[in-house]
Design brief:
Elements (H helix, E strand, L loop, with lengths): L5 E4 L5 E4 L2 H24 L8 H8 L4 H8 L4 H8 L3 H9 L6 H10 L4 H4 L2
Antiparallel strand pairs: 1-2
Amino acid sequence: MGSHAQKIITPGGETLILVPLAEYEALIDALDIAEARRIQAEIAAGKEELIPAETVYRFLDGENSIRVWREYRGLSATELAARAKISAAYLSELESGKKKGGVETLRKIAAVLNLTLDDLVP
């Protein structure tokens, strides 16, 4: 923090620090840069991935996450069902929202799609 900071103690005993706007904005910029570097490192390490905007918009529009991820990964429904060891008909019911799917089934699908269970469940 710069030399222009002021320390204030409220009547309730809370300590507040006042800084000039330029110093505050510099701190926020530094935090943003640090977060961007952290994300870049996770992408480089394979812990995170970049997803195209079109795919993100499909999630935001409420499309079924299994279908969106499957298509993003370039798999047909038949391929995903076979690799997850479930029937294509059951996968179709999951993708259409007719069935929710049990945790183990969703874990199998997530594993095939290289995702976590949280990526599939809204």
